[in-house]
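Before relying on records like the one below, remember that each one covers exactly one chain. Contacts with other chains, cofactors or solvent are not represented anywhere in the record.
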Amino acid sequence: MHPSFDKAVLALAISLSLAVPSLLPLTANAAEPQATAAGAEQSVTTPGGRATFLLPAGWTTRVQGNAVIIMPPEADGSRTAIVDTPAATADEAVAEAWKVLGLTPKLLVATDAAPRDGWEQRRFYDYDIPANAKRVVNSAAYRKDKHWTVIAMDVDQAIAEKRGSQFAKINQRFQPAGYTRETFAGRTAHKLDAARLQQVSDFIEQMRKDFEVPGVAIGIVQDGKVVLSRGYGMRDLGKPDPVDGDTRFMIASNTKALTTLMLAKLVDAGKLDWNARARDVYPAFKLGDTATSDQVLVKHLICACTGVPRQDYEWLFEGEKQTPQSVMATLGTMQPTSGFGELFQYSNPMAAAAGFIGGQVAHPGMELGAGYDKAMQSLVFDPLGMRNTTFDYDRAQTGNYAAPHGYDIAHKVQVMDMGLNDTIKASRPAGAAWSTVNDLLRYVQMEIDHGVLPGGQRYIGEAALLQRREPQIATGVDRHYAMALGVDNSDGVTVIDHGGDMGGFHSNMMWWPAQKVGAVILTNADEGVYLRGPFKRRLMELMFDGNPQAQAAAAATVKANREGFDAFVKLLQWPADATALDALAPRYRNAALGELAVTRKDGRAWFDVGAFSSEVATMPQPDGSLAFMTIDPVAIGFLFVRADSDGARRLVVRDGQHEYVFDEVK
């Protein structure tokens, strides 16, 4: 959604960056094996025997000296080299890996991560690459004993996003040769007693302070009881009102799981079939062309398995003008970029369509948004007792509610404008709900109890509820996406979860069904995204006597984030270059994203797209081109590349798989 949220999409645990356009040819030794195709997933050992990893199905490999080069199915020059080396340092090891690929990318920043997965040292590298290259280039060095293994990645940006789940598999099973992964299989979960809960609280408060998150709320249930529900810090920076278990936060994409619960209620009532064609249920449904539309079943709307890529800029830029009807119409212009059931690709518009279609089944003929809202209230919120959960932004932002926060360009936490967050209203089944820890614990407890409410009353049939957890598409090794629920068996026990991300709000809800434990975390700052993984890991450590990793991981991330931010700011000219600002047109327009107005005052400039406005800095690119970067907390990270030619002024903005050209309005 927000551009700064996309750093984690590639799951190679290395931040997104863009690569140099020119590639030198590979020159493999003629005596070594040539490229070999992988018909199915297979475990591969590096040439030096130092590491193993999982090669995705359909990928090819080529051995070149002490390196194995892996390539995705697309013949587009995308390559990742995995190199064993006895180099003395991480930096020397990485330099050796780039020689294998024939590249010398310009280093932006190198940061250290905590030891993990058998590696005693891990160091990650980001590079200053021109945006127009449209490449992802990064590297990482891993040490075991005195030897290094390096991953150096040079991949087309669209392929990197499309195949993010496969890169996740490579990363997830990248480990020293002979290493045995920790597993919690067969272990009995400890009771989360007062001492363990105090450790959780202390850890959350330490992370909150370290990551400069104004407010956090968490809740935990075990064996049918709420064992912890409390807040940490403030709802609004500079104000005394504390966070508690009833403080309302935007829960963003956690809304999706509640949406599929509404659909499951309709399935349970015999009004809907997961395997019905979407067009048969709602004849106006359209995704791309007719052939594509005909393939989509109800369950496909929410499984992230249809091959429809992220395409959020239409509603981010035009959110103030969109309606549920226009969201559905825009979906008709989208087309999958991978086959059905082939790759995990997350789509907010598809999830929105699922909710609106469910609303029409429940309340035929009602306006799409109103039908959805009514269905959610009567089928989900009311029966579960979720009295503080709402899509009404005016109601949500009264009384006990949290304000969103983010860093400004000086790395100072500021209250964030709600403009970007308002854009999700028209697509609300995908992420517009506000809720509280206590409300979400009621939902989580129902999931743990397979559809039975605390008083013993059955809320929903078990079959309809649990169908939502059936894996639909792989997101990693022993990790799958179901119907807006992640199902993770990679640690030997099953945990089901989903996260949510909007401007200044990051959250997660999770539960371990067999152990009858569930948890919720809600945060009110962009840095809150980094609390979720360590929180989940710390709970597992305390439940299953796991190796202590969470605290070291969080501490290393705090340091790496600051180093990365400082390096990013050094790329910017702020105040922006005056000559570049003077050359901007007053107005630009893109057919899909609408108008962009340029306003100026006191030598500064703002880009206003209607839904949000931000001051811009200039960002010279290594290839000599120039970009403008939005820098206000509400929209930090949108990159507009100047593309003037033949007297026409243009700006280009891109997401992972799409490019939008703004032309000057004359």
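Residues 1-35 have pLDDT under 50 and may be disordered.
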